[in-house]
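hey all, quick one before standup. I had two proteins in the batch that finished overnight and I want to keep them in one place so we stop losing track of which output belongs to which input. First protein below, input sequence then C-alpha cells straight from the run.
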Amino acid sequence: MKRTKFYNIHKRLNAKIVEFASIEMPIQYSSIIQEHKAVRHSVGVFDVSHMGEIFIKGDKALDFVNYIFVNDASKLFPGRVQYSAMCYEDGGIVDDLLVYKISDDEFLLVVNASNISKDFDWMNKNNKFDVQILNRSDDFSLLAVQGPDSLKTLQKISDVNIELDYYHFTKMKIAGVEMLVSRTGYTGELGYELYFEGDEAVAEKVWNVIFEAGKEFNIQPVGLGARDTLRLEMGYCLYGNDIDQTTNPLEAGLGWITKLNKSDFIGKQALLKAKENMTRKLVAMISEEKTFPRHGYDISANGRKIGHITSGTVSPTLDKPIALGYVEKDFSVADTEVNFVVRGKEFLAKVVKLPFIKK
C-alpha cells in the first residue's frame, strides 16, 4: 500500500487511517462532524494527494481532450479549469475529472484516485492524435484548503494576490514552494487546491506553514469522512457511488457539462439516444424523520420500489437525513414524496433541488 508524503503527520495527529484506492488515507482526526463544521465555518485542510495527475502534451492536445471528454475544452484559456467526464462508447462514465489548460499544447487532468490506472489505459487506447500522455500522479502532493477563512490563511504565506476567480488557477509560491494553486474544491466553500512536488520534508514544511498561518482561525485537519459529507450537502457526485460505467451523465444531472452540439466525442451517439429515452434521473432527497439513508438502500413510492440510494447521510449542517439516488423519471420532480426503505421500514422523504446547503 502507498502512503502520501503527509502520512507521518497524520500518524502524529492520531488520525484514523484506512486503505482507499490502495493508499493509506486519513478518514478523521477528531470527529467527522467537528471537521465538517470547521470547513463550513472557518478553515480546514485535506490531504488529497491520492488524486491522479495526468498531463496531455502536443500540438493536438486540444483535439484529444475534446474527443475524449464530454465538455467543450475549446472554451478554456490558460489559467482556466473545467469540470468534465469521459464516457465509454455506450455513454457509461469512465470517470469525472478536472481539466486544467496550462497552455495551447498542454493540459493537466486531475482524476479520481481509484481510477488512475483505468483512465490512463483508456486515454492511451484512444490516443489517435499522437499526443504525449504522462501519468505523474506519484510526483505530486495535493492539499485542499477549504472554508470561509481559506483566503485569509493562504494570503499570509503567498507571494502574490491569491484572490482567484472560481475555477481559475495560477502558479505561485506558498511557503517558498513553487506550486499550482487553483480556486477549486469539493466542499462548496471558498477554497483552494495546492499541487506541488517535493519530498516529505517539503510536504511537512508546507503543511506546518499553512497551519501556523491559520492558527488564528482555529484551522483543522480534515479527513475523507467529512469530505464526503461536505460534498453530499452540495450534491456533488462521487464516482463509484452516484456515477459509474452503468450511468450516463445526462441521467446523473451532468447535462450541463455534456456538450452534445460539439464535434464528435466518445459516447456522443449513445448520449443523443439516451437523451430521447430517459427512464430515470439522479435526484436529491431530504427527510424530516429519524433515519440514516445509506448507499444501496431502496427508494419506494405507492407501495413499490422506484429506485435506489447512491449516497446518504445525516447532514451535519441541517441535522436531517439527506440522500442522492436514482428514481424513475416520473418521480424526479421537486416536492415529489418518496420513501427511504431502511431495514424493511419506509421513511417519508421528498425530492428537492440541489444544493441541500444554499451558499
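OK second protein, same deal, sequence then C-alpha cells:
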Amino acid sequence: METTTRLMQAIRQTPIRTLREVEGFIMNRLQGAILDEAFALVDQGLASPQDVDAAMRDGLARRWVFMGPFETIDLNAPGGVADFIDRYGPAYDRIGAHRPGRTDWSGPVSDSVIDALQGYDRKTRSNWRDDRLAKLAKFVGEEKES
C-alpha cells in the first residue's frame, strides 16, 4: 500500500485510503449519495434535471473543485463546523429525516471533523477561497463565451 501511495503521489494523483473494507470507492459512495438526492429532487417534482445540474455545477461544485465539504462548511459559518452544525443541523435533520440510517452530526463524528480542520487561520483560508472562486468564475465565464 505504501508503494502504491508513493507512486500515485508521484504522478500527481491523490490516493484515498478506506479505513476498513467496504463496497465501493469513497468517491463512488459520495457520488451515490448526491445522485440519490438529485434523482429524488426530480422524482418529487422539486426541480428539473437541468436545475439540479445547475445547482451542482454553478454552486457546490465551484467550491468543491478545490476544497471538500467539511472545509466548505467550516468556512461558511462564523464559528466553523460546530457553529454550522448548531445553525443548520436541525434543517438538515428535517431534510434528511426520510433517509434510513442517516448519521447524527453530533458527538464523536463532529469532534473528529472539527479536530481535522484545526491548524489553519480561517480568515486567511476564507480569503484564499474567495480569491479562488473569483478566478474560477472568470475562467468559467471565458469558457462559456468561446
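Flagging for whoever picks this up: Residues 122-145 form the longest helix (24 residues). The chain has a mean pLDDT of 93.
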